[in-house]
Amino acid sequence: MRQALEKSLRQRALELLSKREYSAAELAQKLKAYASEEDDLPALIADFQARGWLSDARYTEQMVHARQAKFGAARVAHELREKGVNDTLIAEAVAGLQESEVERASEVWRKKFKAAPITREEWAKQARFLQSRGFTFEVIKQILSRHAEDDSPEDDS
Fold first, then answer.
1. What number is the average pLDDT over the span 107-115?
2. Cβ–Cβ contacts within 10 Å for residue 90, how many?
3. Is residue 21 part of a domain?
């Protein structure tokens, strides 16, 4: 009976991994609901990692690739932390994202807003939007002041 349950748990894990990447902690959490007391979930996770079927580094890379167009480094780091990725991998991922943070924030801003903020309320609204996407306040100030300068009327005299 134990053999059938372990195989079932293993099969569930393989089915989950065939659909998308998971972090080790996220996969363990999903499988916990199906594991019995006889099942050795940590051993199953370790086996999958040893075989290369489960990789936090690969998961981190995939998550960063999927999220970088819409979110800032802080938001991506938070999501990775929630999924149980270790701090070293998160630090490496965030370092790579921070290099292009201003360009990505500018693109996110451009897709959402057509014009630079004129009033304080508009500025606050746009800043809150960018902040909710995980961009730092320094980047937000840079983006909003840059676009305000771009939209300012030219002196024709």
1. 91
2. 21
3. yes
